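Quick check before the chapter quiz. The format below is the same one you will see on the exam, so make sure you can read both the input and the output lines.
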Amino acid sequence: MKNFSWRVIIVFAVITTAIVYIFPTINQGWWPHKKINLGLDLQGGMHLVLEVDTEKSVESTIERMTYELRSLLKKENIRYVGIDRIENTKISLKIRGNNNILSFNKLLDTELKDLRVVSESTDDEILTMILNLPDSETRHIKKLAAEQALETIRNRIDQFGVNEPDIRRQGEKRILIQLPGIKDTQRAKELIGKTALLEFKLLDETHDLDAALKGNIPAGSELLYQDNEDSATERVIRTPYLVKKRTLLTGEYLTDARVQIDSQFNEPYISINFDKKGARIFERITEENVKKRLAIVLDNKVYSAPVIQEKITGGEARITGNFTTEEARDLAIVLRAGALPAPVEIIEERTVGPSLGADSIRKGLISMYVGGILVVLFMIVYYKVSGLIANIALILNIVLIAGGLAGFQATLTLPGIAGIILTIGMAVDANVLIFERIREEMNLGKTQRAAVNAGYSKATLTILDANVTTLIAALVLFQFGTGPVKGFAVTLCLGVLASLFTALILTRLVFDYLLINRKIKSLSI
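Here is the expected output.
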């Protein structure tokens, strides 16, 4: 009797917990827990396939190494005629004088081991050398770019606030994104695809801006624009800036970016903070360039170009512009999540409407109702009162699956509904094994209580074997499957555990209650 009481408490606690987690799905707002998440195929949403331009990450690396090479040659007092990036992924270097050539060759063997010499020639004491990255290093950079892009996009979407997004790599440089329930698809695309490369560059105030606008852009400088929308006419006014190409500081040192409201103009701006290294670099930049203009550039677009009035310590800065609160929030998200290492292009886009999801739910539920009713009728006709007990267990089995989905915040997909339907059959199968064993024991002349004990003890091992192997297969599907396969695996795992609980514990508890507490004379089976 003591064992019976403990089983009653456990069964009651499990079923109550499941109902508590299911309730928000039925009546949202009454309970703090979240309702069951529906997948893209059920509630609609957005499906995107992005391709990472990994070649750009190689080009950026070569560009950075070109600047580093210039600085290194100056530091070592090696005179050169010119250093340029050619064919996007190669460095062309010209050095005059035998002494400089000898010094550079030594430097090549010690400091520049990562570069490969493609070709070299000497003419009139001028060494012309073409350098690039080895193939293995190029592949490594491309792989890292794709992996970093995946993590950056995942961080942005997590901060954007999408329930159960599905984000994974496809092949070497593609990323699959599924966003269930997303409404503002255009805003999501802009947030995902924004490179968010933050750069601080000095304005070129020594050359003529008008000449640059006519096409005479000085070497080492570039034309960038700032877009301002006139609130009265709603026209966008483009302001040109002649900016030095050299980047003094990038967003890689950012630790935080938040939306603040300017108390004077009541307009939102982005407050950014640098780490210790970034703060030191920013302090040095502002100290060395007092009274000069520093452009804050994001994705080759100037947001502001204030005059540096004094040295700025503390590692804090602000990005101003004609932001709406939503634009400022999205910009803060992409800055916090980090810049994409390379541009991404949307190569496939599908929007699944909620009507299609509603139709899928309706058909899935109809199939579950039809299958469930047929199983219920069969069990009542064939096993009578024992069949009714199995049917009660079957209903509670579905309740436990739904409670598990809500409790673990798993996503219910259309294949997941198929998994629930499959577990209905599996749950009844366990009861059938037990009932047939009980029948055999009663035919051998055993008492009803002894037959129930023997039926459960002999069928338990068979049921465990069958369900544990199914559970292992479901766990493997969950671990290595993607999308719909994982959705099927989730409900299959929960269904196996729920059917074991209802078949081996719940129905046994009912039989013990009828035979021990109620002392029934005849077992209807």
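If your answer matched, good. The longest strand covers residues 221-229.
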